[in-house]
Write a structure and sequence with these properties.
The protein has about 160 residues and is an alpha+beta fold. It has 2 domains: about 5-80, Beta-grasp domain (Ubiquitin-like (UB roll)); about 85-150, Orthogonal Bundle (DNA polymerase, domain 1), CATH 1.10.150.120. About 30% of the residues lie in helices and about 15% in strands. It is built from 5 helices and 5 strands. A 5-stranded mixed sheet has the order 2-1-5-3-4, with helices on one face. Helix 2 packs across helix 5. About 40% of the residues are buried. The protein binds FE2/S2 (inorganic) cluster (2 copies). One FE2/S2 (inorganic) cluster binds near residues 40, 44, 45 and 61.
Length: about 160
């Protein structure tokens, strides 16, 4: 039997009916078409599915959508302001912080959570912030450089 789910995703309200065991990542990707959030390990190990739920970074492969009922979700699609990428996205581009791109949305969301909590992290704290996100292309140095550039104020946020 399906259950009602209300979610605000990237500022937009949604109401849908889902099976109780539906995961948050499935709602985002399969029901709402927000395929920027990736599905890698499905076991909370790779970080590819990271989104923000009520201001906290969560692994959307490990959250039942109904656990997020009434909540606010931010996905990678919600980072840009209109057509303008946000600072982290611009820095990832400029610093070549991805190769295949599979880990990128999760990395961006973990970095977003880190900077929300601590706008001036040290290099060690940046490493810790993305610690749970695996990049198979081993682009960690570029990712850390990109986040550092944002921390140093090299980018202005779009208004
Ligand atoms: S797909 Fe969720 S942590 Fe890997
Ligand atoms: S850029 Fe390929 S997994 Fe990170």
């Amino acid at each position: 039997m399906k259950k009602g789910l209300r979610l605000t995703v990237n500022g937009q309200p949604y109401e849908l009916y889902i099976k109780p065991k539906t995961l948050l990542v499935e709602v985002l990707r399969d029901h709402l078409g927000l395929t920027g959030t990736k599905r890698g390990c499905d076991s909370s190990s790779c970080g590819a599915c990271t989104v923000m739920l009520n201001g906290m970074a969560v692994r959307s492969c490990s959250v039942l959508a109904l656990q997020a009922n009434g909540g606010e979700v931010l996905t990678v699609e919600g980072l840009a302001k209109g057509n303008e990428l946000n600072s982290l996205q611009k820095a990832f581009l400029d610093y070549g912080a991805f190769q295949c791109g599979f880990c990128t949305s999760g990395m961006l969301m973990s970095a977003t959570a880190l900077l929300n909590e601590n706008p001036k992290p040290t290099k060690e704290q940046i490493k810790e912030g993305i610690d749970g996100n695996i990049c198979r292309c081993t682009g960690y140095n570029s990712i850390i450089r990109a986040v550092t550039a944002v921390v140093k104020g090299e980018y202005k946020e779009a208004k």
